Amino acid sequence: MAADDPSTQPPTGPAAEQEWLAAYDPRAYTPIAVTVDVVALTLRQGSLHVLLVERGAPPQQGCWALPGGFLRAGEEGLDEAAARELAEETGLLGAAEAESPPCRLHLEQLGTYGAPARDPRMHVVSVAYLAFAPDLPDPQAGTDAAAAAWHPVSDLDLRPCGRSPAAGVPADTHGGGVDGRTGPPALPLAFDHAHILADGLDRVRAKLEYSPLATAFLPHDFTIPELRAVYEAVWGEKLHPGNFHRKVLSVPGFVESTGTTTQRGGARGGPRARTYHAGDARLLHPALLRPTREAPPSAVPPGEAPQGATPPGEAPPGEGPSPR
Amino acid sequence: MAADDPSTQPPTGPAAEQEWLAAYDPRAYTPIAVTVDVVALTLRQGSLHVLLVERGAPPQQGCWALPGGFLRAGEEGLDEAAARELAEETGLLGAAEAESPPCRLHLEQLGTYGAPARDPRMHVVSVAYLAFAPDLPDPQAGTDAAAAAWHPVSDLDLRPCGRSPAAGVPADTHGGGVDGRTGPPALPLAFDHAHILADGLDRVRAKLEYSPLATAFLPHDFTIPELRAVYEAVWGEKLHPGNFHRKVLSVPGFVESTGTTTQRGGARGGPRARTYHAGDARLLHPALLRPTREAPPSAVPPGEAPQGATPPGEAPPGEGPSPR
DNA sequence: AGAATAGTGTCTATGAGACATTATTAT
DNA sequence: ATAATAATGTCTCATAGACACTATTCT
């Protein structure tokens, strides 16, 4: 009954007895492994990339997987473990530890996955985290990561895991990629990691609407067109430059002017853009709504709402518990 | 490195070696307990209540805690475990199992809490779930629950856990209670359960905005004023009856008319209300925005956004991974 | 009768989106 | 010179919210 309580109540039933025994000698009970996996996202050449490591051992050998590892019992919390794993793979945590307020690396809990059969060897409960980072160098071999690399999310196949693509979206335009590479058509992901990644992508797309987290994909100073490129890459659709510009500046606390501009204009011409840095707002108000792709119903007579008008399969906005 | 992988890689460092050993004989490694806790919310007499169980044993004895228990290794997933625990405490799962489409009990993952010291005895990782239910009878003693009861959330003290109340809200109006009872001023919650509960309340308040989940607090058929009462109780503020009515009917798929009305009018007069049931929309579009309590900045000149205008500490919309 | 409530109508301020326009810069 | 782009302005439509009003029902 009581949560977090492995040892107190006398057994009152078969299940309770099991728990009671397990509490007094946890090693005698069927063990559960707790791991932490990280969906680390960044922007490269205008398209969304995810950090993956290649599995070199039997179960799912050759498949790519999310970086992750075991929670160190009694030594660290979940957030710490996620940050540690990410640092081991990419060596990018120094930034996160050093400058907290100008938050260089965003890390938040995504969800926990604990189906008994998700790992063939034993029951593994994985706490998934979501990380946003500005463009980073390729993960250097020689660290803990044997083979880690950034992959365009558009190269991955997220569908076979029982997740239908967003309604109306052809599902191959996700990355909105600049490069039309068609090398590996669908990179297989290990275990249920495709499912986790899909949840992470849903989360990012939703969060851009009402949080200033798009700035986490950019360096400290950035321009409005660069910020727009983040939205376009994550949402996979073009945005109106003029309206986006005005909208961003109208949201209090989203960006703050640095008073300077870029040194050069756009690559193909145009004036130099002013630079900004992230403001102190933690929530966008009003939100930057994603362009609606449902045909505008144009004055639905109230009282008889047409069913099915709401796009199914779309992900609601999401966030885990506040990182404490 | 590889996630969910307790057994494959040869050790390449101290941490990796630990993991490797643990994989080949998990019982030799420091164990971690995995539990599932449920924040079960319902509406009683117009105010929000949460299901709590009283701890009868040493650690935190006498404190109230969220219902929960151990994940059965190899036997069940997290969602199943949460549903099972809730059923053991309240006996209300029959409904959820029986009628899935007219979904009588909403259950979703809230977040996972795994600080090493959150339980004094061992490292316990708790996966928290959030449940919404229509008014239920008091949990019957005789089940697994020794002492379980519904408590008004306004009776609980959620603050000492490092969580600041929503900006501008006096923090004692949370329940929006009908009863101005001031009996137990602040019921202490065990472990970090106050923190979990606070996260759950943030989540519910946010979800009512863009999801039709308010209907999960009501019986199958309900009236618009009853639906409004849910919003008022969860948000802790009065809503404009007329505008709310029109707004609800204008959102496609939120509610569908049953064609009938209530048998009696309001308790203090008024015509009989029409009845509705939940529509098939899973997302409210456009959303039912929570009334803004920030002083309307009244035409902020763009380009120099006033910092701090965005209410801090407010919870963003949130949802866990899609229940699979 | 009096009071409270369900439901609808109307008006206004605001924001989103569609263009249009000007100024600036790379090629 | 030409083309592309940053940034701003203007216009229209939809929605949120304030308020008023009618009809219905309980005490």
Describe the protein's topology:
The structure is a homodimer of 324-residue chains.
Chain A: H1 14-24, E1 33-44, E2 47-54, E3 64-65, E4 68-70, H2 78-90, H3 93-98, E5 106-113, E6 124-133, E7 148-152, H4 193-210, E8 221-223, H5 224-235, H6 241-250, E9 255-261, E10 274-278
Chain A binds a DNA duplex (27 and 27 nucleotides) through helix 6.
Feature tags:
homodimer; 324 residues; alpha+beta; Nucleoside Triphosphate Pyrophosphohydrolase; Arc Repressor Mutant, subunit A; 2 domains; 7-stranded mixed β-sheet; 3-stranded antiparallel β-sheet; disordered N terminus; DNA-binding
What's the quick description here?
The structure is a homodimer of 324-residue chains. Chain A has helices at 14-24, 78-90, 93-98, 193-210, 224-235, 241-250, and strands spanning 33-44, 47-54, 64-65, 68-70, 106-113, 124-133, 148-152, 221-223, 255-261, 274-278.
Can you offer a commentary on this structure?
The structure is a homodimer of 324-residue chains. Chain A has 324 residues and is α+β, with helices and mostly antiparallel strands. Chain A has two domains: 33-206, Nucleoside Triphosphate Pyrophosphohydrolase; 211-299, Orthogonal Bundle (Arc Repressor Mutant, subunit A). In chain A, 22% of the residues lie in helices and 19% in strands. Chain A has six helices and ten strands. Chain A has helices spanning 14-24, 78-90, 93-98, 193-210, 224-235, 241-250; strands spanning 33-44, 47-54, 64-65, 68-70, 106-113, 124-133, 148-152, 221-223, 255-261, 274-278. In chain A, the strands form two sheets. In chain A, strands 1, 2, 3, 4, 5, 6 and 7 form a seven-stranded mixed sheet that branches. A three-stranded antiparallel sheet of chain A has the order 8-10-9. In chain A, a hairpin with a 2-residue loop joins strand 1 (33-44) and strand 2 (47-54). The longest helix of chain A is centred in the middle third of the chain and has 18 residues, at 193-210. Chain A is elongated, with a radius of gyration of 22 Å. Mean pLDDT of chain A is 77; it is low at 1-22, 98-103, 160-182 and 295-324. Chain A binds a DNA duplex (27 and 27 nucleotides) through helix 6.
